[in-house]
Specification:
- The complex is a heterodimer of chains A (175) and B (167).
- Chain A has helices at residues 18-28, 59-65, 103-113, 149-161, and strands at 4-13, 32-41, 44-53, 72-79, 89-98, 117-128, 131-142, 164-169, 172-174.
- Chain A is α+β, with helices and mostly antiparallel strands and 175 residues long.
- In chain A, strand 2 (32-41) and strand 3 form a beta hairpin.
- Chain A is globular and about 50 Å long.
- Chain B contains three helices and seven strands.
- In chain B, strands 1-2-3-6-7 form a five-stranded antiparallel beta sheet.
- With 167 residues, chain B is α+β, with helices and mostly antiparallel strands.
- Classes of the chains: A alpha+beta (175), B alpha+beta (167).
- Strand 9 of chain A pairs parallel with strand 4 of chain B.
Chain lengths: 175, 167
């Protein structure tokens, strides 16, 4: 790698200006934002960024650069592996049902056993307070050549857990 | 005959509005030939628009038959001055584009369209199409207006979790 990569997360009580505060420091210190994703969850704003820099810094040095942002929780991890995009078939999976413990665990445990990669996952408790609904939406990549029966297995598993599930193949059109 | 380089963003020509073709002259014919050669050479590509090879005229070339899963289509087409007369329904697919390498995104398109165009011989044609072919035509016509699929991306997250007040 000709550059040094770091995975940095920031979590803070939400207010306007968090992204600007973080990116100002990145910009002024010669970091490039490679890929990033940020979202607001129940009043907490969370950012995860892969940033790069020509010069090699140790973790402490990177943390120190952000020390002025004392209203956030920050974590820094050095990226040591080269990045290879995942190959396989993309699916969108929705799982939902009455709120109960273990929904996420049981579904994702099954996926893990099949070497299926989760590339995006969101969960939310929706519905009325006395009648909560648990909703989990994820995007996964199934390895090439995986027996398609995993979809039926997952449906049977959902029945056992007592939740509804739908699995949609995501077709990508390259024009 | 020439295989041309497919321009990639941020080449500014991809954001230009292309001109209507008034006469199918030698220049237009040569662009059509180059588009055909280029799409053929790319192997997987099912469509190309003239601005993608740097020619700002309203011509697209499509070949939906190259997508094995697309069973209902009108075959390879040269479309000059294509215009969508009618849109119907809404569908979402993940799209990628030769001019925006290594990136795909979810785009909303009309499910069914009626498209009017001139063919290579200057004959006026109209057909109705849906599904893959309809999405392909919409994608390529967008290029004639300087619109890339990135302009039409719908954020996955807000898509799923947009909250509405029903009170």
């Amino acid at each position: 790698m000709d550059k040094n990569y770091y995975a940095i997360t920031f979590v803070a009580e939400d207010r306007p200006g968090i992204v600007a505060d973080v990116t100002k420091i990145l910009y002024e210190n010669g970091f490039n934002i490679e890929d990033s994703s940020s979202t607001l969850l129940r009043g907490m704003f969370a950012m995860i960024l892969i940033v790069s820099k020509k010069e090699a810094l140790d973790i402490k040095e990177v943390e120190d650069i952000f020390s002025q942002l004392n209203y956030m929780k920050i974590s820094v991890k050095k990226v040591n592996r080269n990045y290879h995009p995942l190959k396989g078939d993309s699916y969108s999976i929705s799982v939902y049902g009455a709120d109960k413990a273990g929904i996420v665990y049981k579904v994702t445990d099954y996926l893990a056993k099949k070497s299926i990669n989760i590339i995006d996952l969101q969960t939310k408790v929706a519905g009325k307070e006395d009648k909560p609904i648990y909703i989990m939406i994820m995007e996964i990549i199934a390895p090439e050549g995986l027996d398609k029966n995993w979809i039926n297995d997952l449906k049977s598993l959902s029945k056992e857990v007592g939740v509804d599930i739908s699995v949609k193949y995501i077709e990508t059109y390259e024009f | 005959m020439a295989v041309r380089e497919v321009l990639t963003y941020p080449n500014p020509l991809l954001k230009e509005i292309s001109k209507e073709v008034e006469v199918i002259d030698d220049y237009v014919k040569s662009v059509i030939r180059d588009l055909k050669d280029t799409i053929e050479d790319s192997g997987h590509s099912v469509g190309i628009a003239a601005p993608q090879i740097g020619e700002l005229i309203r011509v697209i070339v499509i070949d939906p038959s190259k997508n094995k899963k697309c069973t209902e289509h009108h075959g390879p087409q040269v479309m000059i001055n294509p215009e969508i007369l009618k849109w119907e329904g809404l569908t979402q697919f993940r799209e990628g584009c030769m001019s925006v390498p290594d990136y795909t995104g979810n785009v909303a398109r009309a499910e069914k369209i009626i498209v009017q165009f001139l063919d290579e011989n200057g004959e006026q044609k109209v057909f109705e199409t849906s599904g893959f072919e309809a999405i392909l035509i919409q994608h390529e016509i967008d290029h004639l207006d300087g619109v890339l699929f990135i302009d039409r991306i719908i954020s996955k997250r807000t898509d799923l979790f947009r909250r509405k007040n029903y009170k």
